[in-house]
Specification:
Distance between the termini: 54 Å
Number of strands: 0
Helix content: over 70%
Strand content: under 5%
Number of domains: 1
Largest sheet: none
Shape: elongated
Number of helices: 3
Structural class: mainly alpha
Order of helices and strands: HHH
Radius of gyration: 15 Å
Length: about 90
Amino acid sequence: MKNHHVTNSKAWLGAVLMLMSFVGCTEQSDKGSNINKDQIQGRVDETKGTIKEATGKMLDDKSMQIEGNIQKNLGKAQAGYGDIKKDIKDQQ
């Protein structure tokens, strides 16, 4: 059981760090870094999915874990798409 607790702690720590990076992105957007809605929404969904996945692990709820993992990965994809859009816009 102790090892399971360590895994859950790591998942929660990852979610917190991701949320902190999201906050950093929004602070940068105030400084004119041209962050777009796909970057923001993708990172929000990624964080929500990570938290949902960790909660599912803690509650031993496989369906919640899977749902969180899917949401996390879709958020990553959307954030990556937003990053690419920003890179293209910055090169113009």
